[in-house]
Amino acid sequence: MKFVIQRVTQASCTVNHKITGQIDRGFLVLIGISDSDTREIADKMIKKLVGLRIFEDTEGKTNLSLHDVGGSLLLISQFTLYADCKKGNRPSFIRAGKPDMANNMYEYIVERCKTEIPVVERGIFGADMKLSLLNDGPFTIILDSDEIC
Fold first, then answer.
1. Alpha-carbon gap, residue 1 to 10, rounded angstroms
2. Is the separation of the CB atoms in 23 and 9 below 8 Å?
3. Which of 11, 82, 115, 122 could be a cystine partner for 28, CB 3.0 to 4.6 Å?
4. Which helix (H) or strand (E) holds 7?
5. Does the predicted model carry a pTM greater than 0.90?
6. Active site includes 125?
């Protein structure tokens, strides 16, 4: 499982010209799921995500979490995080989770995050999504379950 976390001052997801999710201060999280991912892995990733202290405190140090700043989440499924570009110029996505399994895992992640963070917005799994964001910093972190679980 991979999370690309972008600290934002605002972010939104639009599908067919309709906003499906929109936040102010918080994290826009791109979520990649592989066939080997489990709920246990998701739980560890979520714990790390919500505990990240990457907001500035009064001294300008990145020392505050989403809870500390009243931040929100915008969660977006993105199978392309598992692109394999080793051969040729056309990426392979065979390492990405199968759609049914990945959708179930994405829904699980959204619901678990809602138990941790008051405002959790989302995209639509498998849709052609248009994202808009104002990256704060810019500040982007990649969490990979192969490295933290």
1. 25
2. no
3. 11
4. strand 2-15
5. yes
6. no
Q: Position 60: which residue type?
A: G
**Which entry of 9, 38, 62, 80 is annotated as an active-site residue?**
80
Residue ranges of domains in the chain, CATH in brackets: 2-148 (3.50.80.10)
How many whole angstroms separate alpha carbon 127 and alpha carbon 28? 17
Catalytic, 80? Answer yes
**pLDDT band at residue 33 under the 50/70/90 scheme:** very high
CB 124 within 8 A of CB 20: yes
Q: Which residue has the tokens 């810019």?
A: 138
Query: Average model confidence (pLDDT) for the chain?
Result: 96
- The confidence score (pLDDT) of residue 80 equals 95
Which listed residue (55, 78, 93, 125) is catalytic?
Answer: 78
The one catalytic residue in 3, 55, 79, 125 is 79
Q: How far apart are CA 117 and CA 46, in angstroms?
A: 11
78 is catalytic: yes
Give the whole-angstrom CA distance, residue 20 versus residue 121.
8
